């Protein structure tokens, strides 16, 4: 069974930092493109960051570029999202996803975690 479990969410002040983790199991982690998406209640889930299988190539949503960093440790079957200079607009449920292709489209990802809430106070 495939399982993706996010952790690290919480409450942080504007300008603060948070590091999210997504531990994967039940799949050959190194064979999957990993991504982070976020969703605010009532709104469409949006792309945040994506990282290629080997972790060299990365891409980010314009809204988080320069502030967030996605990374992965294939030996630990874990993908991370380091979030710095957090803004209230970053408040959302963050989900990690695994897929076969390098894409920003949420529909292309087959596996999803349960999400972890990030709340940035103003």
Protein architecture, described:
This protein has 122 residues and is mostly beta strands. Helices cover 0% and strands 52% of the residues. The protein is built from no helices and eleven strands. The chain has strands at residues 3-7, 10-13, 18-25, 33-39, 46-51, 58-60, 68-73, 78-83, 92-99, 109-112, 116-121. The strands form two sheets. Strands 2, 4, 5, 6, 9, 10 and 11 form a seven-stranded mixed sheet that branches. Strands 1-3-8-7 form a four-stranded antiparallel sheet, with no helix packed on it. A hairpin with a 6-residue loop joins β5 and β6 (58-60). The model has no long low-confidence stretch (mean pLDDT 97).
Please give a quick description of this structure.
The protein is mainly beta. Helix content is about 0%, strand content about 50%. The strands form two sheets. Strands 2, 4, 5, 6, 9, 10 and 11 form a seven-stranded mixed β-sheet that branches. Strands 1-3-8-7 form a four-stranded antiparallel β-sheet, with no helix packed on it.
Radius of gyration: 13 Å
Give the N-terminus to C-terminus distance in angstroms. Answer: 40 Å
Number-wise, the strands total 11
How much of the sequence lies in strands comes to over 45%
Secondary-structure element order, N to C = EEEEEEEEEEE
| Proportion in helices | under 10%
Task: Please give the largest β-sheet.
Answer: 7 strands, mixed
């Amino acid at each position: 069974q495939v399982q993706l479990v996010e952790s690290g969410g919480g409450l942080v002040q504007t300008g603060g930092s948070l590091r999210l983790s997504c531990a994967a199991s039940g799949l050959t982690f190194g064979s999957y493109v990993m991504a982070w998406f976020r969703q605010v209640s009532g709104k469409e889930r949006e792309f945040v960051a994506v990282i290629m299988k080997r972790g060299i190539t990365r891409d980010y949503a314009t809204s988080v570029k320069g502030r967030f960093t996605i990374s992965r440790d294939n030996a630990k079957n874990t993908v991370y999202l380091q979030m710095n200079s957090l803004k209230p607009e970053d408040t959302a449920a963050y989900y990690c996803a695994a897929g076969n292709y390098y894409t920003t489209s949420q529909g292309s990802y087959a596996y999803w975690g349960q999400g972890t809430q990030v709340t940035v106070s103003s």
